[in-house]
Amino acid sequence: MLKTRFTHSFGIDVPVVQQAMPGVSGPDLVAAVAEAGGLGLVPVNSKLSFDDSVAALQQTRLKTHRSFGVSLGRLSQTVNVDALCDVLERNNISIVEISARSPFSLLETLKSRGHRVINTCGSVRQAKDSQKAGADAVIIECFECAGHRTDRDVGAQVLVPAVVDALRIPIIAAGGFVDGRGLVSALALGADAIAMQTRFLITQESTAHDAVKGCLLQSYETDTLLVRTSSTQHLRALKTPVSEKSYRMERRLIYRENLETFINDATATSPFETGDLSQGLASVGQSIGRITDIPTVHDLIQRIVSEADCVAARLQTQSTS
Question: I want to staple 301 with a disulfide (CB 3.0 to 4.6 A). Which of 36, 159, 212, 221 is the partner?
Answer without folding.
Answer: 36
